Request: fold
Amino acid sequence: MWQKFIWTLPLLCVVFFMTSACGKRLETHGNIIKQDQLDRIKIGTHTRADISELLGSPSAIGTFNDKRWYYLTEKTAVKSLSREKVIEREIIVVNFDKQGIVSSLAFKTKDDAKAVNPSKKSTKTHGQTMGIIDQLIDNLGKGF
Reply:
């Protein structure tokens, strides 16, 4: 009886690990903002410091508009050997006026996302127009 158990234990381990690899793995990324935190925000009253204390550091600040803070939360599911699938995405956008006071809040979900089609055009850089001899001479000049 003992010998049968010794042979079945490795087999059971292999079956366990193979089936667990097929399961779905859920992950959450970003700032998890609760509704009661949002309810405390008063438009026209709270400052950037207040929002930072209440919600934490933003996930991103507007590239061209630093008066806009983004708080991102994303839940994804991953099955083994497959691509990550977004289950839920929530973006809270906090807008500030010139004095740094909250002027508005906006909410976005994954349904608000837009597909971006990259342009096939390319911009030539200096390295693409120089020949190999020009590049060698240019690099030699930089060494001194």
